[in-house]
Amino acid sequence: MDAVYDLARNAVDARYEDLPAPAIQASKNDILDILGTAIAGAAAPGCRETVATLLATYANPQACILLSGHKVPAPEAAFANATLAHALDFDDTHDKALLHAGVSVVPAALAVAEQLGAVTGRQLITAVTLGLDWVCRMGLATKVAPIASGWMYTSTYGYFGGTAASGILMGLDVEQMVNAMGIAYAQAAGNTQCMADGALTKRMQPGFAARGGVLSALLAKNGITGAHNVLEGAAGLYHVYLKDAYDRAALLAEIGKRFEGVNLSFKPYPSCRYTHTAIDATLNLLREHRIDADAVASITVGVNQHAYQNVCMPLAVKTRPVSVVDAQFSIPYCVATALVKKDVLIQDFAEREMRNPRVLALAQKVRPLVDAEIEARHAGQMSPALVSITLQDGRTLCARKDAPRGSPEDPMSFGELVEKFRRCADECGGRLPAAGIEAAIDMVRNLESLSDVRELMNVLACNPI
After folding, report:
1. Distance between CA 207 and CA 389 in Å, rounded?
2. pLDDT per residue over 320-362, tens digit each?
3. What domains lie within the chain, and their CATH numbers?
4. Buried (b) or exposed (e) across 319-354, using 16+ Cβ within 10 A?
């Protein structure tokens, strides 16, 4: 029997009371993080236009678009909020699964909770926990890296995570959940070409997945059937999309006992996760040696082949980014920014800051390379980074970072995520009052006690753009 049945049964049978405390906390962490990154992304290029398009097209008020002061049908709210949440590349990652997990799951679940009404915080936590687990398991089972397959697993698998979370809240039974997954498979897409071309669709692809997840569950609830052998059939996803390069054991290992949300990473910097170990190592050198950026002669950054292809090539674009996506996916730009600014912040990816002459001059001095030892030990994984900075006085300073900040190996606490949320809220230009910010934080902190998720969304959707 196709593995989708095991996954569907696990999702349908799950109860809040059976979830381990770390999984519950991980889901609360992720809900706060996704809401914060969506608020910060509301004014990013492409996001205002997306919201305006939806408001002009859809009139049925079911669920909030964050900060807009408007409601649209639930699938479109999921699309908009996921796009906002991914716009700054500041949302969670699962480093081993090589994807962003919450950005399709959380907006889909929140939109459905608003549409249904009277959904409790416990019900939301349960849906998010199982949705995260589903999408991460699909990534963990995959044996081909995104840059090699051409699929962007964040969105391709996000359709299924968003469907799982939506279907749980709608009360689908196992057969309906399997149908919903077949409907999701009929839509599932998302490609890496948007990165190569620096396209704004990079931030929209998880939005399509979130919308597809809500729509798939709605259609299944109303009797529409989908393919049943979704993952392992002769024309199932793992055969058609990946030529059978998957691990069934990894997909189903300890299902119902281990919840992969506990292994999520949260981002301290709004850039591609493959840049983060290089940023961490650079900032560690700055703290230890108080380096003057103007005294730097050259910089080398050693990473694995996977990171090199994703965030170092083509070098001419990475050292002088043309678009925001180019900058977000550039080790040279991010390392230079860290050296000049002593941090890497949201505003460093604004068009004006991307033209900073000191940063661009320093980026030209960054030479990324494939480190043989890192490649041998970490091929196809989230890459460590070995940063070597040679100063004009001849000294060379080196630092290596294996696990990025915010990963399970070097985690961010809920308190640190609260501070990140506040910084994200500062980016919305005052549209969200201080009282609303603190109210939202308290609601997520005590989410298991919330009687209706609409209270949280109303706080965050109150002020028009």
Report:
1. 39
2. 999 999 999 999 999 999 999 999 999 999 989 999 999 999 9
3. 3-267+411-460 (1.10.4100.10), 273-401 (3.30.1330.120)
4. bbbebbbbbbbbbbbbbbbbbbbeebbbebbeeeeb
